[in-house]
């Protein structure tokens, strides 16, 4: 915790003071994001934010007042540099001003806009960093901002932010907009689609299962091949909803050596009563792994337990003996993992960078949810 505050004070003493004060007297919870900050480009936003905040350290308050005057006066314009700077120095108390600036900027007469700077992704990174899902959604849904967020990465960042706060119904509405827009000529963009399947999996209801099946069928019908995480979310949801046959079908195009794929297949086969095939999946890693290997092909404890239940239900001595032999061999080679399926499924997704990775400044974590309201009166 001390390193956290030391870094914030280096970034901005006043920011650190307000954040330190805001932590007193209320409880915060940690939400798990799906995409890593680097995959969403938030680390790059933090670098630019640090630089611009340093440039504005002596006159940021005057700049805020000036921008407030500009949005209030119809004669004044919001220029590209104005909005860029405001986005990068914004604190929670500035969000209403940012919303007004974006609206004014996007509705100014087009003949006054010569720049081609794309704001959508950067604005969403700001919302993500400030952990402001409601303001992000408000800005996205504002009719005056039509076209402002027409980039797939903007949708991805917004969906990730909503996912962090379990705003699943809102995610479905946002994804419907993605499909209506068909940006980049696709109705099923791969990264936003992962997030939608994650939402369905997290919600884990008959309704979310029906929605997931509908999207999946439509996607398959147009020949789109899903990412592995999309497929495993769909398969795991099918298992949770008592449809192991759909779990197997969802994984048909996936390579079988991945941990989640292997575990889901073993469970699905066991639940379908296809014990011999489930045991074949378990036995398969014994032919691959050596005791001294670092990256072992493992199974989760829960997977082993569910296969055991199916074996006992089958009530066949030979099958039971074979299962016990396999289980003992897995234990001897330390191939049974205490991690759960859910933990691995919902772990951070790190998308490979096409550009050289630039590490974000140390000590610049996302602002905890709810903290914005605590800081509004401290500016």
Report what the structure shows.
With 379 residues, this protein is mostly helical. Helices cover 61% and strands 1% of the residues. It is built from 21 helices and 2 strands. The protein has helices at residues 2-11, 13-22, 37-40, 42-55, 60-72, 80-89, 95-107, 120-129, 133-141, 152-164, 168-181, 190-203, 206-221, 228-240, 244-250, 259-271, 275-284, 301-314, 317-332, 341-345, 371-375, and strands at residues 299-300, 336-337. It has a two-stranded parallel sheet. Helix 8 (120-129) runs parallel beside helix 10 (152-164), helix 10 packs antiparallel against helix 11 and helix 16 packs parallel to helix 18 (301-314). The model is unreliable at 1-31 and 354-379 (pLDDT under 50).
Report the order of strands and helices. HHHHHHHHHHHHHHHHHEHHEHH
Q: Order the strands across the largest sheet as they lie in space.
A: 1-2
Number of helices: 21
The description of the largest β-sheet is: 2 strands, parallel
Which word captures the global form? elongated
Q: What is the mean pLDDT?
A: 83
Structure class: mainly alpha
**Fraction of residues in helices?**
55-70%
> How many strands appear in the DSSP assignment?
2
**How large, in whole angstroms, is the Cα Rg?**
25 Å
Distance between the first and last residues' Cα: 23 Å
Residue windows where pLDDT falls under 50 for at least 5 positions: 1-31, 354-379
Could you tell me the strand content as a percent range?
A: under 5%
């Amino acid at each position: 915790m001390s390193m956290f505050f030391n870094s914030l004070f280096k970034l901005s003493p006043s920011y650190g003071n307000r954040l330190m004060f805001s932590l007193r007297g209320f409880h915060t919870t940690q939400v798990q994001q799906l995409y890593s900050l680097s995959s969403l480009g938030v680390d790059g936003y933090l670098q630019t934010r640090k630089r611009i905040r340093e440039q504005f350290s002596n006159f940021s308050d005057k700049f805020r007042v000036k921008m407030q005057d500009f949005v209030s006066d119809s004669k004044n314009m919001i220029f590209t540099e104005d909005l860029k700077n405001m986005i990068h120095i914004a604190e929670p108390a500035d969000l209403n001003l940012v919303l007004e600036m974006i609206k004014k900027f996007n509705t100014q007469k087009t003949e006054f806009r010569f720049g081609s700077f794309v704001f959508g992704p950067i604005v969403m990174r700001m919302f993500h960093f400030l952990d402001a899902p409601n303001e992000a959604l408000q800005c996205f849904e504002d009719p005056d901002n039509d076209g402002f967020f027409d980039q797939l990465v903007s949708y991805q960042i917004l969906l990730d932010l909503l996912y962090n706060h379990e705003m699943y119904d809102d995610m479905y509405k946002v994804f419907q907009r993605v499909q209506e827009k068909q940006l980049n000529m696709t109705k099923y963009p791969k990264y936003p689609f992962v997030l939608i399947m994650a939402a369905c999996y997290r919600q884990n209801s008959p309704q979310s299962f029906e929605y997931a099946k509908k999207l999946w069928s439509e996607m398959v019908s147009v020949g789109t091949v899903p990412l592995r995480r999309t497929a495993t979310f769909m398969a795991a949801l099918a298992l949770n909803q008592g449809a192991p046959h759909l779990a197997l079908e969802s994984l048909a195009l996936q390579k079988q050596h991945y941990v989640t794929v292997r575990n889901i297949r073993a469970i699905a086969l066991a639940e379908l009563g296809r014990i011999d095939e489930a045991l074949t999946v378990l036995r398969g890693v014994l032919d691959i792994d050596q005791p001294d290997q670092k990256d072992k092909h493992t199974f989760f404890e829960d997977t082993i337990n569910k296969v055991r239940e199916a074996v006992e239900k089958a009530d066949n001595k030979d099958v039971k003996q074979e299962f016990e032999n396999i289980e003992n061999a897995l234990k001897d080679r330390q191939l049974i993992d205490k991690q759960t399926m859910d933990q691995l499924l919902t772990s951070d997704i790190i998308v490979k960078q096409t550009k050289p990775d630039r590490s974000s400044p140390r000590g610049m974590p996302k602002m905890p949810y709810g903290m914005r309201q605590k800081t509004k009166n401290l500016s």
